[in-house]
Amino acid sequence: MTIGNINLNLGNAIKIFGWVANRRSSGKIRFIQLRDGTGVIQCVVMADRVTPEVFELADHIPYESSVFVTGQVQKDPRSSLGFEIAVDNIEVISEALPYPISNKDHGVAFLMDHRHLWLRSSRQTALMKIRSVLTRSARAFFDELGFVSIEAPILTPTACEGTTSLFEVAYFDRSAYLTQSGQLYGEAAAMALGKIYVYGPTFRAEKSKTRRHLTEFWMIEPEMAFWELPEAIDLAEGLICRIVWDVLNECSAQLKTLERDITKLELIKAPFPRVTYTEAIDILKQKGVDIEWGADLGADEESALSEAFDRPVFVTHYPSDIKAFYMKRDSSDSRLALAVDLLAPEGYGEIIGGGQREESLEALEQRIEKHGLPKEPLEWYLDLRRYGSVPHAGFGMGIERALAWITGIHHVRETIAFPRLLDRLSP
Ligand code: 4AD
Ligand code: MG
Q1: Sign of the CA dihedral running 214, 202, 200, 302
Q2: Considering only CA atoms, which residue is closest to atom 28 of ligand 1?
């Protein structure tokens, strides 16, 4: 029996395990808000229905004590759930010490230090439930299109997204690096299986203290043999529409808890606008932003650009100098890479990055050298171009950034149960 399916038990005698989220007393009646992870229900403790000990207990039991409640389910039109429990008995499983988190305004540092307890709050559980729906939805999107799910290694011999953000770890008598992206392995798997996706944790030793940067985050990365940039863009558009749709349909209660303006999400329908990097620079200049062609788009530029649209916007054809070594050059303008970023609305910035991959062995060797990457650990990757190279494309969506945007949460630190940030490694 859980609070989540209490509606099936109107009038029934029930037994529920849970924690005391809140309580109050008024005369001959006491109320306990009981939570069990699936919901919160009001338990009504009346002096004429329980023993004097239980009546007394309901007045002083510490918050977050774990209890076993028996009672009867009744209608309660005033509660958001529509039901309450008329209590027959309360058994204490474990009495809690004075709980450190209360209704008063705790600072972020305090809450982050108590993340293991903060997770129990209604906003945080709402976020975790939406995250769970979002990741299931994203995986289902690819599964239903016939993509094969592949796990890429976490311990890797080389960089994927540039050498400046590598976490180095001792690997016996050598060094290894925590993966920045499953992409290179995804490409190998696409040559074996056609359409694949990698879903897993990725790591960046980025010294960025912003609301968008974690040092450990999760990415879902599809990779498709014989696909080119426009097809990958269509796929990314389909993915975003699917996850927004599923979250809207399955998480209305949680979005309400978070006070998300869902009219903004209801606008998220294909087609999304597509602009080239060069057009994006023009739009920014018209808005008075101080930026020159060739510069990367930072958080401020991305926000300014996305404000021009009410849906996510694809930015394509970036200067190849500001993109990763594996990006294919545009055959009609060799300064450009066949890259794509998807910028979320409402100032959330980039949530997807990807593009078409360089399939020529010679071109890729040149780029590895130009980027100053060691060639030997990438020989296996070059083999993909030696043995039946084909055009291929893919992208990666950061789960935390996508979730921050969809839920309207300011900072990515609340979008993962135990965030890893520049200045935070615990709990
Ligand atoms: O744009 P990025 O660096 O692209 C790649 O890693 C490609 N190899 C993906 C691919 O083509 N298979 O990262 C992709 C996404 C970003 O758009 C962002 O959503 C997320 O990963 N991301 C981060 N999320 C949180 N914290 C960080 N430090 C992030 N860095 C990237
Ligand atoms: Mg990127």
Answers
A1: positive
A2: 213
Among the bound ligands, the one closest to the CA of 200? 1
pTM of the model: 0.96
- Separation of CA 322 and ligand 2 centre (Å): 10
* 3-class SS of residue 284: helix
Dist. CA 162–CA 185, nearest whole Å: 16
For residue 191, report the distance from its CA to the centre of ligand 2, in Å: 24
Residues having CB within 6 Å of any atom of ligand 1: 160-161, 181, 183, 204, 206, 213-214, 217, 219, 221, 350-354, 394-396, 398, 400-401, 412
The mean pLDDT values, 10 residues at a time, for the chain of 427 residues are 92 96 94 96 96 97 98 91 96 98 91 98 97 98 98 93 92 96 98 98 94 97 98 98 98 97 97 98 96 95 92 98 97 97 96 98 96 94 98 98 98 98 95
Choose the CATH number for 3-94 among 3.40.50.300, 3.30.2320.30, 2.40.50.140, 3.40.630.30: 2.40.50.140
CA 137 remoteness from chain centre: 12
Query: What's the CATH number for 115-414?
Result: 3.30.930.10
Q: Output the residue whose Cα is nearest ligand 1's atom 29.
A: 213
Contact indicator for 57, 90 with CB cutoff of 8 Å: yes
CA of 125 to the centre of ligand 1 (A): 25
